[in-house]
Amino acid sequence: MIGTLKKATFGFYSPKMRPITIKEPLEIISCVGNISEKNGEIKVHAHISISDSKYHCYAGHLLPGSEIDVVGEAVIFELTKQE
Hints:
This protein is mainly β. The protein has a single domain, classed as CATH 3.30.1330.80. Helices cover 0% and strands 66% of the residues. Strands 1, 2, 3, 4, 5 and 6 form a six-stranded antiparallel sheet that branches. It is globular, with a radius of gyration of 14 Å. The protein starts with a strand and ends in a 10-residue tail after the last strand.
């Protein structure tokens, strides 16, 4: 994924999640993970790397609450079982 955020919520897991929210223009450097379904519920497990206008980088588990600013482009591949 590439693009920009106006708000990022992410966390560091050690041994439990420590979330943080940054509210300012941010560049998405990378965002990788997977989307799965468990018990009828969609789950997103993604790790994001972002930078601010002073080129400080931050990274962690992407959490609910992040907001796209101008654009967010994602490439999603579907993996299927091969018999």
